């Protein structure tokens, strides 16, 4: 470890004191001293590296073969870009109870079946609690080493003795190092523990999987630097009402980002779903429901958007969105008013994306407009139709990317009528209604 010396520096004049003092003897300013940690550079890993490193020509550098181990869960492998990379550090974040420990234990079960040594470190649960879960998941008979501890030093010691291929750390917020005085879960500890684990992974070729809790704001508790330190960051999101869980890669040094994997939480653990439609009861023929395929990474999903347009009782009509951007809704309403002549000024408008999904792309603009007009005029839309296109401020409806995937997924889900801004070749028999601009599109209602 690097030697650290604390010193106190006056922020006004730069006077250095070995201890904190209230008034600067040099410039007489009050409460201007701030602690700065002095690290003896000669003894740090970074210090040594700076002294030894020499530039080399890129063409002389030999490439590394990234050794990937498939996890045996195709949905997880897809998110990882083919499997776990040896010596890499993976962070899995998610809200409490979403299923982080479940997927980690299932993964440990599969890896240990292939005679790979897995060390499961639990700072949250006792070995007995883990045993209960492993009985439920059917991995109790597997050779998984369980270590129930809150100390990083215990983990490092266990690594020396057991020489595991994989370490699972559940969770980073419950493990602390003796090097720092602060409690587990503080910014300093989270950073320090992660840094030590990254060092371990790179020097020994151990693959480390870290579980991270997510705060209410949706960020992994601890600093953003945690995400910078690791190679891959996966987030677990969920639709609690249906038990559907989505695993999303937000950072991946060895594969694509924004890929998603789909799972369903059952009493036997997480089941993989190859396809899923976030659509409620198809037979319900109410006005204001529209289906639209949206892309999540390289996959398309058919989701349902709902609009409710009702006369307002307020001085200013209410506009509310669940799963869609409110500013974008306001823009679409302005286009519908100005270019389509739809008078929505006296109506409250609510948008809901069914199944707790979030729409972050513009391809659903046309579907949102269709849902609004359908509810406003109280005319249901054929549940076997879809609307795809981006609406511009000029009222022009623009084509969007990945049309092939969107059409295929919609077709699989029973959609046969497509309202699109462009002519599209598709090898199945479908009906295409061209919607080039907003006023032409409104003619269909
Ligand atoms: N017997 C069961 N049958 C079905 N689902 C269950 C059962 N037991 C637990 N679950 C599901 O597993 C979830 C808990 O999973 P898990 O413990 O893996 O979550 P976690 O993300 O690790 O939570 P935490 O942040 O609290 O550690 C529960 O929310 C529930 O949905
Ligand atoms: Mg857990």
From TrEMBL:
Binding positions for ATP per the UniProt entry: 94-101
Entry-linked InterPro entries: AAA+_ATPase, DNA_repair_RadA, P-loop_NTPase, RecA_ATP-bd, Ribosomal_Su5_D2-typ_SF, Ribsml_uS5_D2-typ_fold_subgr, Rubredoxin_2
Record keyword Iron present: no
Pfam families: AAA_25, ChlI, Zn_ribbon_LapB
Stretches assigned to the RecA family profile domain: 65-214
Stretch list, region Lon-protease-like: 348-445
Cellular-component GO terms for this entry: cytosol
GO molecular function terms noted in the UniProt entry: ATP binding; ATP-dependent DNA damage sensor activity; damaged DNA binding; hydrolase activity; zinc ion binding
Similarity section: Belongs to the RecA family. RadA subfamily.
Record-given protein name: DNA repair protein RadA
């Amino acid at each position: 470890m690097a030697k650290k010396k604390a010193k106190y520096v006056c922020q006004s004049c730069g006077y250095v004191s070995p201890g904190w003092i209230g008034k600067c003897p040099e410039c007489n300013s009050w409460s201007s001293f701030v602690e700065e940690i002095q690290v003896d550079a000669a003894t740090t890993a970074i210090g040594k590296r700076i002294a030894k490193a020499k530039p080399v020509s890129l063409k002389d550098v030999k490439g590394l073969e990234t050794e990937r181990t498939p996890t045996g869960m195709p949905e997880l492998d897809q998110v990882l870009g083919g499997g776990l990379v040896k010596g890499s550090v993976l962070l899995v974040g998610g809200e409490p109870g979403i299923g982080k420990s479940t997927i980690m234990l299932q993964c440990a079960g599969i890896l240990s079946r292939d005679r790979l040594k897995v060390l499961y470190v639990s700072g949250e649960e006792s070995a007995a609690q883990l045993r209960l879960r492993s009985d439920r998941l059917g991995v109790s008979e597997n050779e998984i080493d369980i270590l129930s501890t809150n100390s990083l030093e215990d983990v490092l010691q266990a690594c020396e003795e057991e020489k595991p291929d994989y370490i699972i750390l559940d969770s980073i917020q419950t493990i602390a190092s003796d090097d720092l005085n602060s409690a587990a879960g503080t910014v300093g500890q989270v950073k320090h523990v992660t840094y030590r684990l990254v060092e371990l992974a790179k020097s020994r070729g151990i693959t480390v999987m870290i579980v991270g809790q997510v705060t209410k704001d949706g960020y992994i508790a601890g600093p953003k630097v945690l995400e910078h330190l690791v190679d891959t960051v996966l987030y677990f999101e969920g639709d609690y009402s249906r038990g559907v869980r989505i695993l999303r890669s937000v950072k991946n040094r060895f594969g694509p980002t924004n890929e998603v994997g789909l799972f369903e939480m059952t009493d036997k653990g997480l089941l993989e779903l190859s396809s899923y439609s976030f659509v409620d009861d198809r037979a319900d023929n109410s006005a204001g429901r529209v289906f639209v395929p949206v892309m999540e990474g390289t996959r398309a999903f058919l989701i349902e958007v709902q609009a409710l347009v009702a006369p307002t009782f307020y001085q200013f009509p209410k506009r509310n969105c669940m799963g869609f951007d409110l500013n974008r809704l306001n823009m679409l309403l302005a286009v519908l008013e100005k270019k389509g002549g739809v008078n929505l000024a006296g109506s409250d408008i609510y948008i809901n994306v069914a199944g707790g999904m979030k729409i972050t792309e513009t391809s659903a603009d046309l579907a949102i407009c269709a849902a609004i007009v359908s509810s406003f005029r109280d005319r249901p839309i054929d549940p076997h139709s879809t609307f795809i296109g981006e609406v511009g401020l000029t009222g022009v409806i623009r084509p969007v990317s990945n049309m092939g995937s969107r059409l295929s997924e919609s077709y699989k889900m029973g959609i046969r009528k497509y309202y699109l801004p462009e002519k599209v070749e598709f090898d199945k028999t479908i009906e295409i209604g061209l919607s080039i601009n907003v006023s032409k599109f409104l003619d269909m209602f």
